[in-house]
Design brief:
Length: about 270
């Protein structure tokens, strides 16, 4: 069984458990659609320069423990002050040590748009994300059959959630383009063997139609990579491990993205 199969199998088991604890109808009653509390995720990534989605991540299957005792509030504040455009929060418990409590805390202590990163396999998770403070969710093409992917995308948009639709190869890119993805994520990590190659973005971005918002994910740890991704037209980068593994996430951010602090174009009005 490849890593993606393990991720999906664990996600399905977690969803069934949480459904028994909190019915969908209860989640539906907690969400607000079209209210003043919206923090547009896509718009935050399309401002001048390369935007940064800074990720809160305690551990990963590839790196093991990164910062297991990290405070969401402290990291979120550091990211916001450093100039992040948005924040990503891992909520997968089994492989990344995340939780919905982390998502709620990030929402309460930061003004940044928040992407919930999990392995979404059921519409229940969309309502769960919305009820716990997410502005956007991750939809991984490799984790879903085409009809389910399209249905989840439609339902997410119906409840005012933006979607980062993640691809790893040309076939998945074609599926994302066919469903008119809001924001396209190109993941440089192979989710079966966990290897990383930033060339994945450099290769696939040439196939993306002009005007589509593109995010490069994984393997972004040095300034030269950021400069190259900016040069080929990538709108934003999602960075977690390179920021979380250092002594201070805010300082690590400034090392990788010098000059971002205080720039209004990377902040919501």
């Amino acid at each position: 069984m490849g890593m993606m199969d393990q991720f999906v199998e664990a996600a399905r088991a977690r969803v069934e458990t949480r459904k028994s604890e909190t019915p969908l109808t209860e989640l539906e009653g907690k969400i607000e659609i079209g209210g003043d509390g919206q923090r547009p995720f896509k718009e935050a990534l399309t401002r001048p320069g390369i935007s940064v989605i800074a990720e809160f991540k305690r551990r990963s299957p590839s790196a093991g423990d990164i910062r297991p005792e990290a405070s969401v509030a402290e990291v979120a504040l550091a990211y916001e002050q450093a100039g992040a455009a948005a924040m990503s929060v891992l909520t997968d418990e089994d492989f990344f040590g995340g939780s919905l409590a982390d998502l709620r805390e990030a929402r309460s202590c930061s003004d940044l748009p928040i992407l919930e990163k999990d392995f979404v396999v059921d519409r229940y998770q969309l309502y769960e994300a919305k009820a716990n403070g997410a502005d956007a969710v991750l939809l991984i093409v490799a984790a879903l059959v085409e009809d389910d992917l399209a249905a989840l995308h439609r339902e997410a948009r119906a409840i005012d959630l933006d979607c980062l639709v993640e691809v790893h190869d040309r076939e998945e890119l074609e599926a994302a383009l066919a469903m008119e993805a809001d924001v396209l994520g190109i993941n440089n990590r192979n989710l079966d063997d966990l290897s990383v190659d930033v060339g994945t973005t450099l290769d696939l971005v040439t196939e993306v139609p002009a005007g589509m918002t593109v995010v490069s994910e994984s393997g972004i740890a040095i300034r030269e990579t950021v400069v190259e991704l900016d040069r080929v037209g990538v709108d934003a980068v999602l960075v977690g491990e390179a920021l979380m593994a250092g002594d201070e996430p805010g300082s690590a951010f400034q090392d990788l993205f010098p000059g971002e602090e205080g720039t209004s174009e990377h902040r919501l009005p």
